[in-house]
Structure formats: C-alpha cells, structure tokens
C-alpha cells in the first residue's frame, strides 16, 4: 500500500521590499525593544494631547519637596508642583519639537539635496553646496543659540534655528543618492519618453530615496529633542509649558539642597528616550538598507 507523501514546505521570507524590511526589523531584538519604549512615550504624548493626564502640571500646593508617594509618584518640587505630571507633560513638548523639526528639516533637505544632485555641476548645485558649507562651518550650538536669542520673542524661534542647521545633512545624503539614481535605466527611459525634468525628479527619483529619508527623519527627531533640552536649560528654548531642559535648570538649586527628584526624572526620561530611539533607528537602518533587500 502506497504511503502518503508529506512535503514540508520551507519557510520563505516575505517577497515585497516592505515585507522583507519588516521581517528583518522584527527579528532585531533591540530594535523591537526600542520601538516598544518609544511607543510608550508616544502614548504618554497622546494622553497629554487629549487631556487624559499631565494637564495639572503647573498646579502648585503647600507640599514642598515631598518625597515619592502614592499621591505624588516622584515627589514635588520647591513650589509644590507634581514632578511626575511635569515630566509627562514635557514628553509632549519634546515630541512636538522633535516631530516639527524632523519633518521640516527632512523636507527642506530633500528638496535642496535632490535639486543639487539632479543639477549636478551647474550653478544651482554650486550655490546649494556653498550654503551648506557656510552653515556647516559655524559652530552648531553657537549658531542655534544665536538665532534663538535674536528671535526670542517668536515662539518658533528655536524650531527655526534647528531646522536651518539640521537640513544640511539630509541634503548631502539625498544629493549623493540622486546623483546615483539619475543614471539608472528607469530614469533614462523616462527621459527618452520626453517626460519633464520636474516630473522625473519628483515621480521617479525622490520616491526611491524614501528609505534614506525615514532614517534621517528619525535621527533628526532625536537630535532636535536633545538640542531643545540644552537650549531650554540655557533659557533659549521652550517659551510656553515645561521642558526637560527647564526641569534640569530648575533642579540646580534643588541639588544643592539635597533634592534630586526633579533632576533624576527629567534626565532619566531624556536618557531612556534617546537610548530607545537609537536602538530603533539602528534597527530601522539595517532593515531598510537596499543592500540587504536581496
């Protein structure tokens, strides 16, 4: 009697580029841990946006410098404000700054970098390279602080200062990639069909740099948050609300008096977010690397 033949299929990896990228990302343990931690921060931010928690961060009381308790998870500061609420609300401020700067800097870098790469060896390329060279030659924090100070009355002065600095790195990367892509067969085919240069650039070339733009946006997001904390510590950052940088600045006198909660909460929240986002960004870069797509 013929025995039935069972064929065990060999597990195949996903075929589409996005599926393969997700398959590689989810097998990176540290990347998934980073994504999980960042997701927690994002949920905290959404909760503040929707008024679920952190809304009474500015409320004062007579409970000065209280230790951690059920009522005040991380204690209170010198004027009786709940440190946990302040730290949670500052998470929203950090995400707002990071998202706005990352999106604007990435868009500006993409437009200028793609234009410079597409018009390589022309006056357009030369002007853009000159501007990037000038901006890169100025000390980073000195330039950002100078702009933030000069426009201190404007609520978005700090954001503009960081955007003017962070776009150059994205522009350089995009420029190099566009210079490579414009000699590919699909671009030459579009040119042979008589398509306009603007259409070729925005429809065929820039979409093929998406993997680089996603990675650059994540890097810029973290850099913007760290810069905001430093500027807020120096008094040049957040004008409304509370920031981790402002909390650290406020804690200088507290530390001398032996109260460390304000400093530990602000610096701890920043440290954990930066480490988690670095894990996430590294895993994302490995997952989106075109060299690993095959």
Q: What is the count of distinct domains?
A: 1
Total beta-strand segments? 0
Reported for the largest beta sheet, the result is: none
Poorly predicted regions are 5-14
List keywords for this structure.
mainly alpha, 11 helices, MetI-like fold, 294 residues
Protein model, in words:
The chain is mainly alpha-helical. It has a single domain (31-51, 84-292), classed as MetI-like (MetI-like fold). It contains eleven helices and no strands. α5 (140-150) crosses α6 (157-181), α6 runs antiparallel to α9 (210-233) and α7 (185-192) runs antiparallel to α8. The longest helix has 36 residues, at 83-118. It is elongated and about 75 Å long. Residues 5-14 have low confidence and may be disordered.
Furnish the topology, listing elements before pairings.
Layout lengths: L16 H10 L2 H21 L33 H36 L4 H15 L2 H11 L6 H25 L3 H8 L4 H9 L4 H24 L10 H13 L4 H28 L6
Helix pairs in contact: 1-11, 2-3, 2-11, 3-4, 3-6, 3-9, 3-11, 5-6, 6-9, 7-8, 9-10, 9-11, 10-11
Task: State the gist of this model.
The chain is mainly α and 294 residues long.
